[in-house]
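note to self — DONT lose this again. spent like an hour looking for the file last time. sequence + predicted structure for the chain T wanted, 478 res
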Amino acid sequence: MNHLLQPKPHHHYYFVTGRLAEASVRQIVAELAERYSFAYSIGVMPITVAALMTPRWLRRHLEIPEEATHVIVPGYCDRDQALWSETTKKPVIYGPKDCRQLPEMFGDKSSDPDLSQYRIEILAEINHVPRYSIEEVVRVAKALIEDGANVIDLGCDPASPCAEIGDYVAALIDNGIPRVSIDTFDPSEAQNAIDRGATLVLSVNSTNRIQAVDWGCEVVAIPDSPGDKKSFQETAEFLATHQIPTRLDPILEPIGAGFVNSVIRYVETRDDFPEHAMMMGVGNLTELSDVDSAGINLLLLGICEELRIESVLTTQVINWARTSVRECDLARRLVHYSVAHGVPPKRLSDQLVMLRDAKLRPFPPEALDSMAQSLKDNNYRLFAQDNQIHLLAAKLHLQHADPFFLFEQLLQHPCAENVDAGHAFYLGFEMAKASIALLLGKQYEQDQALQWGQLTQQEDLHRLQRSRKLRRSPKSQE
């Protein structure tokens, strides 16, 4: 769908569809016409499934009413757009591929949330940098910047100081990454990195704060141990006395080690230092909890946004947190919009809704039976709803929760004579997607990728290509 409509009183929309979706289109359009006050007519083409239309085929069957001001065709017809200028001089609008999404065409474009703004800076840590080559670190750093990181943090190895750490810093700067921080308590490592261009040191407490006076760069102040408020305040006051730019981080603790109390300490730090820069290291929760990281990142960045903690440090070591930088980038935009507008971060973006879909769009059960009765060809349509995979073709409606059992049912049916090896592979691939959708609570649409939020990778329309090969004659479409 690539068009948002703003109906005018003189508009008359001519909606084009196939026989299968006719009833749904009529119901949806009637409700829209009453709500938005436009005239309309509906053209039902001599084809069962609108997805099988092509612009060239539709041009032969289209009879546009004289009173129509706009023609709305299914989204699948956006190929060969040049043909439309030969067919009609009236504006042709490409609607959604699913008629149930027609109401979205009438949304107000200005109401789309602006998620371009954010306040929280992301420091992306590369752990144990000395264990990797400079080339590997540069490659990883570039990917992290692409995912939304503002600063690359080089994590050192406490057991063995790295004399060449400055070379890593210089290599990043030479490759267009100007903001680099060094994560070490070793003063010589910190100085080496600063001499080559590092602008931030993580972290400083009573053990190394005296050396920080000579570094001439920003530092992150932490307590000597989590919960040690006295040492934390002493370090903060020491750094302030020596006019050293500082971010305060009271340390986030993992669940089981004082998580709630550590969150309270961030609140107390903000109360004690109302205008001071602060930072939160979120990895102690995302890396040390057996749970997908996206929800945790959104929650923690929401806390940061409300407390005006304007930087977070994140890592991507454990597999379930492997996209934490991208998640934090999306989360910081959501929470900024949410706090700025006083609304929950809901219905703003679906990019962090990765496991389950926000909403399912099942057909009424009787509609699937009706489809099976109206189909005239043996091209297979798959649906996943009501804990069942449904397979439809002409006069055929099979359903089962187990795709293997469903395929056995199909092979025992007379219409299965057209199931060759390629077709069987295609059906197996689609049934696997349908099974995943049922298991997780996702919307399954045949020949379309399951929606995984920011992780979605679009697919080719394999079924449409296959369907063309299976057609025996033009009559098989009708």
